[in-house]
Amino acid sequence: MSEAQLFEELAKAVYSGDDAKAVELSKKAISAGMDPLRAINEGLMKGMGRVGDDFSQLKIYLPEVMLAADAMKAALSILEPEALKRGGSAVQKSRVVIATITGDIHDIGKNIVAMLMRANGFQVYDLGRDVPIDELVKKAEEVKADFICASTLLSTSMPYMEDLIALLKERGIREKYLVMVGGGPVTREWAASIGADGYGDDGDEAVKAAKELLQRRVSQ
Amino acid sequence: MTSIWEVIDRTETGTFMEESDFDLKVVAKKCKDLVKEHDIRYDPKQIITSDNSLADDVFEAGLRLALEAGIYCIDTKRVVRFDDYELKEGIISAPRRLLIGQNKDSRILYARRIEDERAPIICGGQAGAAIPEEWYLPMSISYMKEPLIDMINNGGLAVVEGRKVRTKTPLEIQATRRELSMLREAARRAGRPGISLLAAESSVSAMGDLAIASDRYMRRTDSHLVALLNELKTDYDRISKVVNFYEYGANNVTLVDPIIGGYAGGPEGVAVCFVASFLLGRAMYGSDYHVCHPIHFKYMSTSAPECMWNLSIVGQAMARNAPSIIMGDVWTSAGAGSEMVFYETAANTITNVVTGSHPLGVSATNGKYPHASGLETRFMAEIAHAAVRSRLTRNTANAIVVELVNRYVDRQGKPDIGKPFPELYDTAKVIPKYEWNATYLKMKEEISQITGLKLS
User: Fold this and answer.
1) Which CATH number is B241's domain given?
2) Which of A106, A108, A159 sits opposite B166 (nearest CB)?
3) What was the ipTM of the complex prediction?
4) Kind of pairing, strands B326-331 and B289-292?
C-alpha cells in the first residue's frame, strides 16, 4: 500500500468510527517508516474534516461523530508518541475547556460543539453539565487552555456566563483566555454585551469563530 | 397506570448504566436499528405523507423503543423500564378530552384525528422565550384579547424587579410567581379571567413549580410542562414537578423535543424517539397531554422541513394507534414584524392541524428574542381554522406546505428577526401599530392566494 493509499484508508477508518482499523493502520504506517505527523494531518485530520462537513449537512449524526472522534483518539495514541520519539514536537493543539454552565443540565448542544471542535483539531476538555464557573476556571488554569467555552439552554443560566467573565477579571487572568458562549437563548448581541470574545449560532459557526479568534491572537 | 410511588422506586432499583452507554449503545443504536428494520424514510417532498403504513411503522418502532430502552434517570444512573402491559395501559387510559379553563373561557381540549374537521384549540404565546418584565403584561394581553386564541402558553421571566434570575436560586420562585400573577392579571384585563394557562415557564428547576401550586397562581384547570431530557432521560427535578402536580391536580404535560442530528439520528430516528417519548411520558409522568417539538440541530425551528415531517408523521402515528392530546409547536426562525414569519407559521400550522395536533405558538425567532405579539398568533389561528373549514386532505395540504417551504427554507439560516414587541404594538392600548398591521394584512392576502384558503 502506498503512503497516499494508507493515509486515505486511515481517513476512511476515522470517518466510519472503526477504532480497531484506525489503530491497525497507524501501526502499519509506523512500521513502514512513514512520517507519523503526516499520517495525523493527511489521514486522521482529513477523515475528521469529512465527518464535520457531513454532519453539518445532516448526512451523518452525532453518534457517528462521537464514534469517529473515538477512532481518531485511538489512532493518535499510536501516532503521537512515535512522532515525539522521532524527535518531532508534539502535535500543537489549541486547548478548549467546555461545559454546560451552572444550573443547566441540557448538554446535547454543548456535546455537538465539543465534538466538532475535536473534529477540527482542538484538544477538548469537556467538563459536563451544571458546572460551576470556578471549576471551569480551575480546569482552564490546570491545562493551560486557550479557550473557555460555556453553553446553556436556559435564560436563567445566562447570568452565570457574566459571572464567569467577572471572575476571570477579578483574578486578573481575563486576558489569558478566549471566552466563547452559546446556546438556545444566547444571542450575538448579548455575548458582545458581556464581553465574551466569541459566539456561535450553531456548532459550525462556533468552530469557525474559534479558528478566527485563534488566528487573530497569533497574528497579534 | 403505574403509580408515581412505583416510578420513584424504579429510579432507585432499575438497571445501573453509564449515561454515555445509554446515549450510544441504547438510544442511538436502537433508533438506527429500528429505522432500518421498519424501512422508515424521510422524503422532503412528502412533508405530509398520506401513507398510513409509514405512520404505523413509526408507531410500532416507537413502541419497541419505549419497551426496550425505558427512561434513564440521570441522578441515579438507573434505567426505569415499563412492560408492554404498562405502556398499553397508559395508551388506553390517556385522556381523549380534557376540560381546560373556567366558566365562559373553558374549552374542551381533545385528541385530534388525521384530517379532523373539528376546530382545533389554539394555544397562543411566545413559549420558551425570556420576556422582559416591563412588557410581560401588555404582551400577554395582546394574546388574551385575540378571540380565536383558546389558551395561553407565553414565555418566562429572566429578570424580576430588576434582578437577573439565576437557576435554582430564590429568584426562580419570585419569577415563577410573578409570571403567573401577570398572566392572571392580563386575563382579567382582557376580559377572559377563566382562560386556561400552560405556564410556569420561569420554573426551570422544580423550585418555581412547587411555589405556584395554589389557585392564586396555577389552577387545576391549567397545565405545566415536564420535559423529557434529550433523549429518553429524566431527573429528580422533573419527577418532583410531576409528584407535586399529581397531588395538586393540575395537568402534567410532557414536553418532548428530540434533536434532529442528535443521539436519535436523522428525521426518521427522531420520529421513532418521539413516539417512545410520548408513551413513556404517559407511563412515567402520567401526562395528560403532550407537546411535540422537533428541534433542528442548526435552525431549531419546528418550521424546518425535517421538523414538520416529524410533526406530521408522529401526529399521524399517534392518532392512528394511541389517540392522545398533542399540541404541535410552531416555532419560527423569523420574528414578528417580518414577512417571513407568516410563511413559516402557515406551513407549520397547516401541517399540525391536518395530522393530529393542535397548534401552539407562535414562538417567533425560536424564542431567542422577544420579537413576538398577538397578531402573528391571530394569523396562526386563522390559518388553522381555514385549513379545517376547507377540509384539507393530507395530499392537498402537502402540496401547499411544500410550496410555502420554498419561500423561506433558504433563509432559515439568516432569518429576518423582526422587531421587539413595543415596536410592533401600542403598549398602552395593546393594539398593533399601523405598519405591523399593514404587513399582516398584506401577508394574509398573499398567503390566501398561495394556499387557496379563505382567511377572512
Assistant:
1) 3.20.20.460
2) A159
3) 0.86
4) parallel
